Each structure stands twice: as structure tokens, then as C-alpha cells.
Predict the 3D structure of the following.
Amino acid sequence: MTDWMKDKSGQEGLRAEDRFKAWCEERGNSVYSSPESMNINDHIDFIIYNTDKNRYTVDIKGLKRIERDSEKQDEWTWIEFANVNGKRGWLYGKADYIVFERRNGWLFVKPKKLRDFAEKRVNRSVCADRPSAAKYKIYRRDGRQDEIALVELKELVKIGKFVNDTK
């Protein structure tokens, strides 16, 4: 288990992955955790075979907080252009879909569509001084080389496919 998985947000991310895996399996899909190197280097959490035996890879993104001590919310999500080491972030991963958790389902977005959207809409030449100011602007956390930005989930619904899971 890598260090980031041990902190609060890492544990919450793993729980979101567990919820997604259970949701997929309830629908008859076969879900396999990716090898650690694939998870780290390619940003692929799961390999899925649907009921037609088609293979898909996904990177799961749980609900996010805007500020570290705030509540998780369902209006904004973080997009990672560069990771904490300054290398290409998960936005440039190799998954077939980035899957965002919503309070009432899952939002599937093709990475190319997400990249095109983020690169067009996020002003990467402007740096926000605090997380809540990072709406469509870059935010860098102290002591890290990451480049992250907040984007509205309602905008991502327009470029993805939302699967409602209300019971």
C-alpha cells in the first residue's frame, strides 16, 4: 500500500472504488483490480468485463472536498494536470473512462473529452491562493508540485454519460 492510501483522503478514495466495484458486480460485470504498476503509472483502478465480455479500464474519482476540512460535495471535482511530483497527472492516464462518483450514481467520461474540456476551460496561467478560489484556475498545494483545478460536475455531465443509481 503506497503512502497516499494511508491518509484520510486516500482511504476515502479506496472506499469509493469499493462502492463502484460492488455496483458493477451487482449488474453482472466482472471487475478486477489493476496491478499496482498499472494503477500508479497508467491511472487505471479496475479492469472490467461487462456481460457481453467487452473489456474496459476505469479510473475512479470519489466525491471531493473543496477545502481540506470541508464536507464532501457533489457540485465540483478536482482535475489533476500534474501530480505531487510535477509529473503528468491522472488527467493524462490511460483508462478508457474516468468515473466520477455522484450522490445518486456514476458519471463516465472519456479521458480525451475530459482533457479537451479541461485544457480549454481551465486557465492554467492563473494560480489560486486557496482551494476554494481554484474554480477553473490552477491550485498548487504547499510543498508539492501538483497542478489541480476545480471544475463543475454539471459541465462534465454534458461530455459524459451519467448512470443514475437511485433505488
Remarks:
- Helices lie at 8-26, 36-42, 111-121, 153-157.
- The CA atoms of residues 113 and 159 lie 7 Å apart.
- Strands lie at 30-33, 46-49, 55-61, 76-82, 97-102, 105-109, 123-127, 137-138, 147-152, 161-164.
